[in-house]
Amino acid sequence: MTQLIIKPTDLERAKNLVKDAIKTKITLLEHLRQRYLQKLDTFEKKYNVTSDKFIKEWAAEDLDGKDMEYMEWAGEYHCFLDLEEDLRTLKSINYVIE
Fold it and tell me: What is the pLDDT of residues 41-88, one digit of tens each?
């Protein structure tokens, strides 16, 4: 496990600031996650295919909007996956005071 060591002058205050900042970021990312899910759901319903299957099997020619729609859906999906990874990372943080 990788460790991040912070050595502040006021340990308790720094711990609370870091925890609050991470909690705020998680809340923001969870809100953004819902927005991405709504956008992806629109594409998935329109084409009756999951975003995962779309990325693996479809080409721009398969979409009504061709390249522009393909880039938009693919971009939204990749941003969603990155956001999911960020959320997993932030939620896995353990605070150890020594």
Answer: 999 999 999 999 998 998 878 788 788 888 999 999 999 999 999 999
Q: Name all contacts of 11-19 with Cβ < 8 Å and 24+ positions apart.
A: 11/97, 15/95, 15/97, 18/95, 19/95
**Hey, what are 55's tokens?**
């990325």
CB 51 within 8 A of CB 44: yes
Sign, Cα dihedral of 86, 84, 61, 39: negative
| DSSP label at residue 92 | T
Distance, in Å, from the CA atom of 83 to the CA atom of 9, rounded to the nearest integer, reads 33
For residues 45 and 19, what is the distance between their CA atoms, to the nearest angstrom? 38
**CB 93, CB 50: distance < 8 Å:** no
